[in-house]
């Protein structure tokens, strides 16, 4: 099993969720996060004063999937979240040793 963590632009969330649903991924965790990379933030004007916004709003999606869905899931996220502009985000893939569904005690693929 693999865990995909994707940090994307907030307005792409619904499209990514639909794309993942089309390949059979039904569950995910979503968090509103802030961060920066090469984008480095930007300056804004408030009441005549200019100030720096270092951390930009992003959305982090976490999905645990079976190994055989990994490439499809990555392709779905990349194709859907890409705008071609700086700040489109990143995908991180890690191995998952064990998953347990608390309600039923099911484990691993049965639990996801």
List strands and helices in order, with pairings.
Blueprint: E1 2-8, H1 13-22, E2 29-35, E3 42-46, E4 49-53, E5 56-65, H2 70-81, E6 89-95
Antiparallel strand pairs: 1-5, 1-6, 2-5, 3-4
Helix pairs in contact: 1-2
Pfam families: P-II (PF00543)
Subunit structure: Homotrimer.
Keywords: Nucleotide-binding, Phosphoprotein, Transcription, Transcription regulation
In summary, what is this structure?
The chain is 20% helix and 37% strand. The chain is of the alpha+beta class and 112 residues long. A four-stranded antiparallel beta sheet has the order 2-5-1-6, covered by helices on one side. A two-stranded antiparallel sheet has the order 3-4.
What does this structure look like?
- This protein is an alpha+beta fold and 112 residues long.
- It has one domain (2-111): 2-Layer Sandwich (Alpha-Beta Plaits), CATH 3.30.70.120.
- The protein has two helices and six strands.
- The chain has helices spanning 13-22, 70-81, and strands at residues 2-8, 29-35, 42-46, 49-53, 56-65, 89-95.
- Helix 1 (13-22) packs antiparallel against helix 2.
- The longest helix has 12 residues, at 70-81.
- Belongs to the P(II) protein family.
- GO terms for molecular function: ATP binding; enzyme regulator activity.
- This is Nitrogen regulatory protein P-II.
- Keywords: Nucleotide-binding, Phosphoprotein, Transcription, Transcription regulation.
